[in-house]
Amino acid sequence: MSIASVAANRRYLVPGEPSRRTGLALLCVVLVAYFGISFDNFFTVSNGLTILMNVSAIAIAAIGAMFLLVSGNVDLSIGGQYALISVITAQFAKDSGNVVVAVLAGLVAGLVLGLTNGILVKFMKISPLIVTLGTMAVFKGLAYLVSDGRSVFGFSDAFIFLGRARINEVPLPVIIAGVLFVAGGFWLLRTAGGLRLFAIGGNAQAARLTGVNVDWAIVRLYVLNGLLMGVVAVLTTARLGSGTPQIGTSFELDVLTAVILGGVGFAGGSGHPAGVFVGVATIGVLSSGLIFAGLEDWWQQISKGLVLLLALGADQIAEHRRARSVRREAPAEQGEPDPTPGAPPGLGVSAADEYGLDRDTSRQPGPVVLRVDGLARRFGSVFALRDGTFSVRAGEVVCLVGDNGAGKSTLIKLISGVYRPDAGRIELDGKQVGFGGPIDARRAGIETVHQDLAVCPNLGVAHNLILGDEPRRRMFGLIPVRDDGAAVTRTRERLASLGITLTDMNRSVGRLSGGQRQSVAIARAMKDGVKLVILDEPTAALGVTQTRNVLRIARQAADNGAGVILISHDIRTVFAVADRVVVLRLGQVVYDDAIERVTHTRLLHLMAGLEAVDEPALDPAESTVLKGH
Ligand SMILES: Nc1ncnc2c1ncn2[C@@H]1O[C@H](COP(=O)(O)OP(=O)(O)OP(=O)(O)O)[C@@H](O)[C@H]1O
């Protein structure tokens, strides 16, 4: 791989905004130069260290805020956490006189506050903005309650040393902030966990369906955020020599401004630690400059608020630009030329021929891979599925059809571990299985392409393909990281084996055509050793060429020994690819037979409930003749 292509890969592999970061770095340099020229003592080592010191708290908090925003979440309560943890730490430091007890008290307090936010966001299922706005008020109030509204001081020298120690003149908090920031940035960019955060921010539903445990990932993020606030509060309390409920006022404003200014999109799914670093530096320089200018506190508030609004405005403009450039690119559908150009579907053309699919009628299906029996699921008072009973053999394509609301999606979501059944059993290779989530089903060998296209538009093709099953390696034989080289190789090979022509493995999926996106989702499902592939309406939004490609891939998966379930409303698709057809009506399987034993008309009637199920099936010879009609 050339250096240029590695650089290009980086651009797509890490959803960020390099141009914004460059612009921001320039703004920061201009601010430094302006303040340096305007104020005599601005360019001094001691002022530099003061800026670093002040910025260290923002930098530590910015790691948590960056992770949360990338995943599409936010925490407005960090100012309240700051105050509450500070007074708790101070009280423990004063009462115990033991530095370890004080530090542990601060970290545990941070963990508990973070966990509270995480659990509230997970279970209340309302905007994290609102949830953390509420906890912000509660935490602030508690800080006054715990401290009786007064500052707490009288610490041991050892505790104060923690905040004021210097190593080679560099304050310890600055060193801790630097180490944490580098570690956090590295984790976000280079690990499977970091990739999953981008995936959750890009399309949480897709990430969930791919097997990412979204809810707990978010709870863990809030816990981490609380822990980081614990570090901030402990260091600041030690440095100031007192804990006070007034601390942390408008801290969330500083942190969010730095992070959003640094290019982390408020909508989630994008951002880069380098940008956040520059954002933090800019806020630090700005704050210091405003103090040098002797502006009153309220002017500082106004300036920072305006900068936040500007940053949000820039974020919106970047979002519009991105959307416009995606529309402008209007990618060409890539596929093979139509084998029967101009041939109108109709008399004398079987559906299989119409889509150019070869059907080997001599092939016998293998043993039963999946058997479901009496599966049922209700949502409140709605019985989405009453009796899902059918089986799929290895090497067989079973088409699941039914009217809107018949329960098809519910049935396949039960099989793929998205929902748990209220009743019934699922057997895979003759053994009963129960799945706690999509990842369990994937591990058992069931791959699903859901109707709502389980792809993350902000991630590249390769990253979408590996999501939930990321290849890993050990950096320096020690640190576990994501193996992006292996991801690109795996993607290239998988696409090639399926005859899918996509050249740029790192192109963000949001920039692909609908057909190409569908190809990526399907390619992810077609991994080696897969036992059952489920495709929910895979051709719904596709043209003839793309439909043929998808059906060919489904057939290929069956020929390779997998069982395939394909849901479709398009009768021609069903007759082109199915070995067997299962009709679902009002949540019940009402018909299950070989495709040769049913005509188009009868199938339509069965789906719509216009025909009794026990009417005699066709003679196979007769049905083969009628198949294309
Ligand atoms: N999460 C849910 N909450 C409440 N009701 C649901 C839920 N999921 C499905 N249903 C209801 O269950 C019934 C079956 O829905 P399902 O999506 O499984 O049908 P379908 O056959 O896939 O329909 P379509 O072809 O329109 O996609 C519908 O009445 C639907 O409204």
TrEMBL record:
Gene3D superfamilies: P-loop containing nucleotide triphosphate hydrolases
UniProt keyword Transmembrane present: yes
Domain ABC transporter: 370-611
Keywords: ATP-binding, Cell membrane, Membrane, Nucleotide-binding, Transmembrane, Transmembrane helix
GO cellular component terms, A-Z: plasma membrane
Region (Disordered): 323-353
SUPFAM superfamilies in alphabetical order: P-loop containing nucleoside triphosphate hydrolases
Pfam families documented for this protein: ABC_tran, BPD_transp_2
Protein location: Cell membrane
Protein name: ABC transporter domain-containing protein
Major location (coarse): membrane
UniProt keyword annotation of Ribosomal protein present: no
Membrane topology: Multi-pass membrane protein
MF GO annotations: ATP binding; ATP hydrolysis activity; transmembrane transporter activity
Transmembrane segments: 21-39, 51-69, 99-121, 128-146, 170-189, 221-241, 247-267, 274-295
Higher taxonomy: Bacteria, Bacillati, Actinomycetota, Actinomycetes, Micromonosporales
Organism annotation: Phytohabitans flavus
